[in-house]
Amino acid sequence: MKLLARIRNLVQFQLEQFILRGPFSRLMVIAVAMGLIALGAGLLVYNAPTGQSYDDPGSAIWWAFLRLTDSGYLGDDEGSVLRVVSSLLTVAGVVLFVGALIATMTQWLNDTIETLEAGYTPIAKNNHVLILGWNNRTASMVEDLVQSEGRVARFLSRHGGRSLHIVILAERVTPALAQEIRDKLGRSFNMRQVTLRSGTPLRLDHLRRVDYLHAAVILLPTREFEAGSSPDELTIKTLMSAAHADDDTEAADMPLVVAEIFDADRLETARRAYPGPAEFIGTPQIISRLLAQNTRHRGLSHVYNELLSGGGQQIFVRECPELVGKRLIEVATCFADAVLLGVARDGTLLPLYADNDLTVAEQDRLAFIARDFEDCKPTRESDSSATGRTHESLAGETDTRRRRVLVLGWNQKVPSLLAEFDAYTRERVEVDVFSLLGTEERETMLRRKGVMLEHARVRHIEGDLTSQYEMTRLDVSGYDSVVLVASDWLGSADAADARMLLGYLVLSQVLESAEVKPSVVVESMSTDNANLFDQANVERLVSPDLQASMLTQVALRRELHWVMEELFSAGGAEIEFRHVDRLGLDGKAESFEALRHARSAHGEVLLGTLHRRDEAMPRLILNPKDKQSPIELIAGDELVVLAIA
């Protein structure tokens, strides 16, 4: 009995394994079962006394097969034996031929559709924009690409493409991802423009799934909420996977990679990992600098949000061959609808007025602030009498008093933020960092990142920013500025914003009775949540949107990275404010052109004006259309300039 049971189990197991191979195996089992039933029933009626004779067994088997596959033959049979057998065959046919066959085909179709929706099939595209990985910024990056029609058209023209196609490689494609993109784009959503594929960029076969070697550009954002490891480790591993293709592809023919690097010390390592053309953006360092600069200049977030978040004014670079050989200061007035920032050359930006004798060379690209790319065309004759910088910047513009800054929270950007404060050697800055993270662990992270603080005085305080008792003990009103940073150890952007919002409400309650309130700078992880920080003394930076904008802009025009590195990194040219009352302009009306000429003598590029008539809603005007009309200036208003350190 044990042997029979084992044989039965063996046959059952082999049949099970065969059925589970796929729909073709299931169809074969159904066909064999139908054949055996037709064979048995045919031989039965051939040998039984049914009152109907068959020429041979084959005719009887065919009779049984017809009854098994088509119930319409049931009424043609006569005699009780034939009718019973025919009825049983018809019922078996409904179960096997109709039920099992339809169920098998339906399951096969469902499995096929699920496989297609899951994005496991490889694509074959040329000149597509490839985004490796899904995070809280991916939908914003897609939105920036879709809305940047002019930049995209010029980008495709350079690469020989005809239409924008975005391919996203996510670890697991779900309907929720597609819906998030659909919600973000709204009416601009076009399902033929976006393709989702499942996989990890750490594996070469998954990179081939998205045809990465034929992409026009590859965007590689970091994973900020990746617990237990540095985001740069995954980025560099992905770069190495992309670099070691089996194809004999020359380095110059590999696609352009635009990647984020969190740790500045790993920039050179990342360059070694990918031999092809690449731009590595230290977005955490840039965001940290924006946060630090906002503690020095209230209202600066309005400028950054305008330039980096798809506002009315944007940064452009453009070739102007007709200006080659002329001094840069001479061509500054050639552009009626744009503000010239400088010249992008050899991976850096040479600011206007940095060198009065600097001339425009053959391969140079001029950098502008403008509303549109077409506004960057020269429309006037150059001014050969331009003198450029003739005076030093006005004394007293740098605030030399002691500034106290409170940083609430901790994330991987804080070391860069502290390094930025330490870089202000002409200022006295005291920074207190208040977080649940242990002091020893913070200091260890600073040492590992090479942050050696020499000028700024930094004090680490352990505590919970959501505790009103602990926040009250801090004496928050004694600080000049408070910076709230989003915690990246919570696992998601929404959780980080939820904790920071609670801390913000506690901070507001603590400051409610204070006579003098410090300025507050908030790093939000979502545009939707940024609107919740609505007090007059609060400035908001939505870091995912700013990071997404920087990545997409550089992807469409890599020279923009040189400009951003100069404008938004430590040292070099900085965007600053000049108080009109200190310049003797209080109560006067001057044209933008006259103000521009006056600031050029001090080596500064006038970008616009910030009017503070309503402190809750400061009015920023960059690159006004009419540069000859007078601008009324009152006490509290400021000029926005690009100054050279």
From TrEMBL:
Listed transmembrane segments: 27-46, 81-103
Membrane topology: Multi-pass membrane protein
Protein's cellular compartments: Endomembrane system
Gene3D superfamilies, per database record: NAD(P)-binding Rossmann-like Domain (3.40.50.720)
Chain residue ranges for the region called Disordered: 377-397
Keywords: Ion transport, Membrane, Transmembrane, Transmembrane helix, Transport
Keyword hit for Transmembrane helix: yes
InterPro entries, sorted: CASTOR/POLLUX/SYM8-like, CASTOR/POLLUX/SYM8_dom
Ranges where the CASTOR/POLLUX/SYM8 ion channel conserved domain occurs: 285-380
Record-linked PANTHER family: ION CHANNEL POLLUX-RELATED
Protein name: Ion channel DMI1
Organism of derivation: Salinisphaera dokdonensis CL-ES53
Organism ancestry: Bacteria, Pseudomonadati, Pseudomonadota, Gammaproteobacteria, Salinisphaerales
